[in-house]
Amino acid sequence: MNLDDMRTHADDDIVDVVIVGTGAGGAPLLARLAERGLRVVALEAGPNLGPKGFTNDEVGAPRINWMSERLSGGDAPTAFGPNNSGWGVGGGTLHWGAFTPRPDIRDLNLFTESGVGADWPVDHAELIRYVAEVERTIGVSGPNPYPWDPDREYLDPPVDRNAAADLMAIGCDRLGIRATDAPAAILSRARDQAHHGHRHASRNLGTIHQGERFGTKATTANTYLPAAVAAGAEIRPDSMVHGIERDSLGRISAVVYRHDGREHRQRCATLVLAGGGIETPRLLLNTGLANSSGQVGRNFLAHGGVQVWGRFDEQQRAYRGYPSALISEDFVRPDGVDFAGGYLLQSLGVMPLTYATALVRGGGLWGDDLMEALDSWRYSAGIGINGECLPAEDNRLVLSDEVDEWGIPRAIVAFSPGQNERAIDEHATATMTRILEAAGALGTRVLARTAHTLGTCRMSADPSMGVVDGDGRSHDIPNLWISDNSTFPSSLTANPGLAQLALSLRTADRMLR
Amino acid sequence: MIGYDGTIYFLAGLGFGAAASAPLAHCLGERFHVVGIDLPGQGGASDAADGSVQTMADVALAAIEAEADGGPFLLVAHSMGGKVAALVAARLLSGSANVFGLAGAVLLAPSPPVPEPMDDDKRALMLAWLADGGLSEVDAREFVAQNVAEPLRESSEQDAVAQVRQTSPLSWKRWLTEGSTEDVSAVVGVLDLPVVVLAGEDDEDLGASAQPRLLAGVYPRARFVSLAETGHLLPYERPDEVAAEIERLWQTTVEASPQVPAEWGRLIASGRTGTEERGMLARRAIADDPHYAPRAISQAQLTTLRALADRLVPQPGMRRIDLAARVDGDLTAGRGDGWRPAELPDDISAYRIGLDAIASVWPHDAEQQDTLIRRIIAGEPVTDAPWDDDALSLWFEDVRNDLARAWLAHPASLARVGYDGFATSAEGVEPAGFVSLGAGLRDPWEPGDLGTPVTVSEADE
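ok -> structure tokens follow
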């Protein structure tokens, strides 16, 4: 994005707020605070690429992903990099899937409902007001009426269905499962985005996870960040924060970061961490701050993401079109089950190398079986889930002895699914297999997967149970806030992007009180 | 159906045009489609706006674009044409021309990307020939005679002299005073391309003894062939030897590696595919170096990785991608995937340790090899394993994934599995993306094997 004429601040200036990160957690807040006249600076570890700097080639595309190595442990080691981690001005929204179901009230009250997991110290109705504001701002396309929420209205019609969506619709219809066009932050109609410019209508690209050049997909770099800069915010790319300084009262006074090979120190009155579920706890553990609860790094959450793929007679080539064009919320609370929470279903088309990795890692394939499966890819359509993940203390991020290129200890993240996650997986696998078979699949294949990096600095009403309060403010340090998905107490069945954008605005308004 | 295996684009030296490819074409026979290219002012072609090598490369690329069929081709270039060919190859490998299919180059006493070593007296004499406004019959005969070790046969000599006489005086002067002295080495860079450089032992500044020094850094994979009793005019002096080297290079590159179908090659070449993507696909399509020297792992470890690749990502038949070499290249460049199992050391160390462990228990028999692979994947104990069973299995998962992705990233593999999404993000092409999304259907621009074409209307702005 264009940063040429932005307002700048000197390192010695005590700016009102420094925000670390420019993705779904940092950007809306940056814009809101700038629009209210605060002097704000965002520090982004990655570069400012711009749409022309993206490539749809899967080998080249990780230039928008956090590729500095993370270490994964546990029974189901989490894949980072292109799977879930953003890099550059725009953060995770550069690579996100733009699949934007709204958070469900039952998921926010999971503990009250089921006695397991955690409740969110957030009012659902209030959150939804912010969600609706985000949807208008970034441009979310979707169907009216929405079967599971008749009062909801999408301002733009849904994007085109691809072959995988068509098949899932057929299968669901034959089984009496409700399914419809997915809400997506992909424009179905072109628009002029304030302070950014023209954004095209959908080009039916399946390559949106690699970065999208036409602006059909909303990112913070084509929505909130240009608005923030227009309102006087400064964004500093290539700036990796590794230190936090405090005054004699223990309040944050400055952040220390590396830029162009040199150390910089930006003074600030307030600090917001928005680096996501890995970088925020890593920074806090490395600086030893805001952890009187001992909760920093704990309760790492990864959505269940199991996929079932069916093989059909005709070429599906579901890499064409928006990859997740169909949704079903019928299993947010399935009947007659012995697990808490539930899952969303989405139709799936994926890129070739991503599919190959899923076959190898998630399907255990090799040799002739692998080659045969790759040759069958064009005849295949998939369905995947976003499944609830309950917090568990031992699913945890800690620091390694090994340091990264900035001299910061690498993160070690251990993740093992519990009984509830396994039960959801099993139920979803059976459901998806039935749908594909009903749609006429000649054969099906299950590919294991998890998604997203949540929960490592969770919000809690009780200061001993979490790192920040329901507004996002640190329980320990009054001028430290966290605005990213590390604060999620439970994973939600909805994908996290939209909820996070909304929470970011909400935290900004709390800061302005 | 095209009736030939591939195309040869021929770029001649100073004084010669497309017609100088005739002796070579005769030796190659029907198997190759030989396309001679007139550089500016040569062979009767008009002069260009300036005498820069870039402008000559523009002309050559325009001619190649006009003729290109999407199938594999070699550049064959002589002397001055060799300097142009270096720029052409660099542009093709960066994707900045609407051409796809470069497989390698055969260079004949080529002028290097750096200023050409040329004797001052020789340059002065050649410029003096222009004093009367053009190259006379006598001057042309002297030029040909100076550049051969033994006199050419009468008919060849007549052809050569006639060619030289067609050269425009301006282009002659420009090459001697501008093009030959230009330094384009920074633009050309290093070209990791299968290349054979032939040169005569009786040539002077661009002879066999000079070429390795001039070009080994530009073409690290170059094989240098020295021709006895040969001067500088290889296309006329040694067409049989040049043809034999072309056939040999073709056999060890195009015929030894998976090929992108011509229709797919044309799509990659087209304006639908972005420049950067075209360049990446062009570089990946280049056949692997049979003498690849690993940098991240040892030669023995590379051998083990190749053996594993044969079982994990089988490529039956003679056309192969050296997946192990490509993984070594990725490891060397630090191209990881952003994470690794916590129990394992960094990627390169893990590969070294893991491959040594596999080598010590690797059976000869394919069936036993598969049994071992199944044991590792299942996390069962393996003799002398460096890590616990689960960690070995996790490392092995990385190996399987790296090899599979190396295979699939090759454009011939993408064509085989039916992926053309690389052709959807170029600027100025509308509709840039896909319009028909249904099963069994394709957009008109998509390759024919992808479904039934649907006529589309303009995408909604």
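Chain B has three domains: 6-256, 291-413, 430-460.
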